[in-house]
């Protein structure tokens, strides 16, 4: 009977008109979007669905990566603190542990808020609103099917009435018409109810957008709280780091090194410490600065300096060559050469000058040049004063000014951007002549030398024991560029040629060990008296504040000439001069 009814239908009823079908398609898209958002947001919550009561929160907190990391950092920091209360690493670990622990707490709070106010709302929509619409749609389809069945029955009854024309058939038709009208009303009511729910759901578009706005607000609150915690902790960490400012020492800029520690002498700590110890040991050791030292001993002393544990008592076992090798290593690893990064070409041109007076003037002006920082000038003066003293004992240590210049030059003058061939012997010879002349005539080039003790204002305790640097200030009383006359001005007359037969006492500018030299003898006129207004070299000076330097990006140039070759060249020149 049912098959016949379906076959006798004239047309099938439409459940929804075109406009409602379009709305239905839109709602299906909303459903897909909400399902995706619910899934992805829930996946991003580590403790999702684990409860929001006190014990659940505590369990979730312990499983949070940030909270677990924070607890571990704090524990390791306390462990280091027990071994060394001044451990910068341990203190920073504890501060970082506190931040990570707070991050974990903020994360749990964020997840709970997301679950209750975003995920739960999406869950209600997916489990309540959309299923209701889907259920009403199925009911409408069922009613439409029943409506079509009623239509088919009425159609069949009318056909039978036309063929028989009996009163019973007419009563049956009337009953079917009444049933059809009732079914039509049910379909209309179901359609209206479905349309109402669908349109009500579309009206929630702004509400759904508000859920994502809440999501963003919770994200903002999470990250803002984390950022605020980090900002509060950052000054504490910076304060801790300042207690270890200036390490590492090797490879750091000279200005940063002097600003990071209480070094009122203005002399780099490795240089002054090693020079002071060398003077205590005596400068008669043969081959100072030339003979190699044991690499393991040098590495150990470097490590001791880097750790902030080096002091005069700790250098009792260090021999001459370990100390001189450490000085050279420090100078060579400066980011910029001690003699000035921008003055390489000027030093080279000064060494290539033929006239001795012109060479004296050029070197004098370069030492007064504004491009040579005053902290560099101060350390050059200290270093070359020491080299001058070493050369005075040439007969015992076999280190003349010429020999010292050969081994020291590559460590104080190099080309930052290589243009010349590093194996060019003429370049190396010209630069070495500059250094040799400064060593030989030190007292003339540095007429403001107060000749203070080598350990003047040298810290008596290791640098690592200082917990905080001196407050930022400007180096005072150091020879400024204006006090050093400025580049381009005429130098004072060079020192006079020493006279061996003179009955006057030997001048400190011309020690006995140098009287036989002729290569760098200055013109024969009297030296000027030291200017009275020039400040002394080693007053107590608070260092300036400089930032911690970046790691070295380039290495100094390699030595341009072996020791023997340059000595042979100079010997040949001296022979030619003698023959002429």
Write up this protein.
The protein is built from 19 helices and no strands. The longest helix has 77 residues. By secondary structure, the protein is mostly helical. Helix content is 60%, strand content 0%. The protein folds into two domains: 241 residues, Arfaptin homology (AH) domain/BAR domain (Substrate Binding Domain Of Dnak, Chain:A, Domain 2, Up-down Bundle); 283 residues, Rho GTPase activation protein (Phosphatidylinositol 3-kinase, Chain A), CATH 1.10.555.10. Helix 5 runs antiparallel to helix 7, helix 11 packs across helix 16 and helix 16 packs across helix 17. It is elongated, with a radius of gyration of 46 Å. 30% of the residues are buried. It starts with a helix and ends with a helix.
Number of domains: 2
The biggest beta sheet is recorded as: none
Task: Give the averaged pLDDT, no decimals.
Answer: 79
What's the CATH architecture name of the largest domain? Orthogonal Bundle
Q: Determine Rg (CA atoms, Å).
A: 46 Å
The helix tally amounts to 19
């Amino acid at each position: 009977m049912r098959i016949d009814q379906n076959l006798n239908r004239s047309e099938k009823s439409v459940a929804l008109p075109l406009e409602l079908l379009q709305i239905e398609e839109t709602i299906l898209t909303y459903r897909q979007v909400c399902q995706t958002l619910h899934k992805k947001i829930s996946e991003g919550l580590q403790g999702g669905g684990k409860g929001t009561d006190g014990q659940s929160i505590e369990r979730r907190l312990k499983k949070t990566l940030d909270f677990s990391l924070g607890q571990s950092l704090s524990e390791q920091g306390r462990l280091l603190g027990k071994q060394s209360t001044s451990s910068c690493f341990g203190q920073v670990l504890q501060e970082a542990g506190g931040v990570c622990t707070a991050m974990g707490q903020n994360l749990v709070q964020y997840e709970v808020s997301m679950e209750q106010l975003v995920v739960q709302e999406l869950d209600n929509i997916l489990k309540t609103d959309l299923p209701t619409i889907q259920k009403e749609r199925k009911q409408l389809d069922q009613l439409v099917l029943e409506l079509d069945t009623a239509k088919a029955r009425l159609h069949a009854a009318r056909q039978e009435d036309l063929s028989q024309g009996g009163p019973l058939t007419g009563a049956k038709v009337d009953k079917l018409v009444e049933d059809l009208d009732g079914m039509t009303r049910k379909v209309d009511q179901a359609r209206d109810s479905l349309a109402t729910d669908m349109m009500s759901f579309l009206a929630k578009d702004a509400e759904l957008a508000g859920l994502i706005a809440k999501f963003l607000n919770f994200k903002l609150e999470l990250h803002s709280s984390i950022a605020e915690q980090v900002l509060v902790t950052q000054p504490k960490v910076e304060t801790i780091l300042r207690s270890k400012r200036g390490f590492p020492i090797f490879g750091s800029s000279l200005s940063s090194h002097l600003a990071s520690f209480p070094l009122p002498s203005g002399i780099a700590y490795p240089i002054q410490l090693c020079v002071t110890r060398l003077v205590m040991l005596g400068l008669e050791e043969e081959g100072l600065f030339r003979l190699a030292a044991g690499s393991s001993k040098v590495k150990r002393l470097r490590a001791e300096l880097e750790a902030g544990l080096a002091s005069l008592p700790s250098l009792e076992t260090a021999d001459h060559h370990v100390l001189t090798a450490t000085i050279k290593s420090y100078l060579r690893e400066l980011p910029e050469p001690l003699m000035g990064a921008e003055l390489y070409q000027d030093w080279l041109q000064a060494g290539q000058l033929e006239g001795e007076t012109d060479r004296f003037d050029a070197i004098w002006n370069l030492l007064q040049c504004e491009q040579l920082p005053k902290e560099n000038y101060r350390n050059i003066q200290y270093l070359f004063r020491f080299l001058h003293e070493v050369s005075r004992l040439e007969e015992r240590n076999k280190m003349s000014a010429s020999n010292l210049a050969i081994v020291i030059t590559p460590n104080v003058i190099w080309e930052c951007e290589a243009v010349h061939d590093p194996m060019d012997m003429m370049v190396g010879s010209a630069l070495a002549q500059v250094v040799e002349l400064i060593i030989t005539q030190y007292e003339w080039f540095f007429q403001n030398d107060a000749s203070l003790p080598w350990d003047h204002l040298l810290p008596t305790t290791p640098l690592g024991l200082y917990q905080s640097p001196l407050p930022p200030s400007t180096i005072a009383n150091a020879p400024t560029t204006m006090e050093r006359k400025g580049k381009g001005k005429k130098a004072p007359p060079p020192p006079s040629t020493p006279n061996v037969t003179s009955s006057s006492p030997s001048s400190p500018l011309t020690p006995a060990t140098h009287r036989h030299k002729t290569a760098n003898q200055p013109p024969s006129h009297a030296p000027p008296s030291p200017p009275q207004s020039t400040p002394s070299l080693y007053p107590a000076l608070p260092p300036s504040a400089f930032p911690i330097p970046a790691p070295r990006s380039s290495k100094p140039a390699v030595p341009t000439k072996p020791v023997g070759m340059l000595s042979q060249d100079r010997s040949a020149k001296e022979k030619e001069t003698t023959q002429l």
